[in-house]
């Protein structure tokens, strides 16, 4: 009994370490994917309209893209080492799937890094050439992410791979392309990354408007980013609806946990706005429901919804953390709703910093900056915790997937990861703040307005020459 408890303690420590590392890694990767798509969209719109404002915003955003791209690369390597060390059981089962994906990434890497260098340093190129490079990089990032998401979709429902001697194998990455969970998962994840980038640009441009800096370019960037963000929010909602329908069929346990649905009865069409799930007693201590609203997510007339009690009887592995999944899903919904209202207000009436209502809305745009990260991390918790206690649904439990790393060693690794992560995040934030304070220094028509009239022309010109440019300047 004691050794069993110690074994699960070891597993929990490794889970905590991997959960922190993955969540931290996910702070940067979606932002790079989203920023690249936003930059390409801004450059393309600038070429269509013949107005340079959005291209100047895109050039300004290229420095945050590079910072977060580097952070994403650096934080990705610990995940691979943890899989080999802390999750040796999992690595042994999936090496025939992960291997082809890693090989694909190795083939893509030279193209990826070349495009990053061209986009970051190639602003002297003709606008059309740079736009093509930005678009190509945006596409490559999505393709690379899709390969990783295919593995995750397969883990949620292991279909499309052949098991030989207890090991899953695929001939190539494309073998998983037709998986029923891939399309909604990729669309939802990538659109979420676009939302994140849109909100970052909205916050930066709103800050410039509040500080009365680069008014014309910041206003164009604010509206452009709001449009980009709104379209992305709509896509995430549609993809989320699609995912919900697929979960009912392929992951009924996760869907039931999301809705804290314990019983399989006539009340299964109610949507719980709030609840206090009790996993040990297998019921909700409190419920605030909207009758029939669950039918907005799935067609409950044709799709039979199963309760957690019935699913638990058919499963030997147990239940996920229902409360964590339930509330994480609602945190994602609330964040989505707040962002949607905010960008609609920005588009309805462009906020004027000279008016109190306009200043309030601009401040709200800045304060709302954490919302997309909250939505992304909460969605990740729903996805990963919702399938527990399985790592590979129906094939490999979390306990079976773990390696032989003692809890003390795993916690030491976690402490080191937290310390290094704090340093990296501090550097990341400092670089971004310094970049924002420098401002849109690539906007020539606005530089003279920021030079005081009493400063001699020669000194003003020298100041402009010494002012740091934004990437490639």
Q: What labels would you give this structure?
A:
473 residues, mainly alpha, two-stranded antiparallel ribbon, 68% helix, 6% strand
Q: What would you note in describing this structure?
A:
The strands form three sheets. A two-stranded antiparallel sheet has the order 1-2. Strands 3-4 form a two-stranded antiparallel ribbon. It has a two-stranded antiparallel ribbon with strand order 5-6. It has helices at residues 2-25, 29-49, 53-86, 88-121, 127-156, 182-210, 215-250, 252-258, 308-314, 322-348, 356-367, 370-385, 398-401, 407-438, 457-466; strands at residues 162-164, 167-169, 271-278, 283-290, 390-392, 396-397. The N and C termini lie far apart (65 Å). Helix content is 68%, strand content 6%. It is mainly alpha-helical and 473 residues long. It has one domain (2-466). It is built from 15 helices and six strands. The radius of gyration is 24 Å and the shape is globular. The longest helix is centred in the middle third of the chain and has 36 residues, at 215-250.
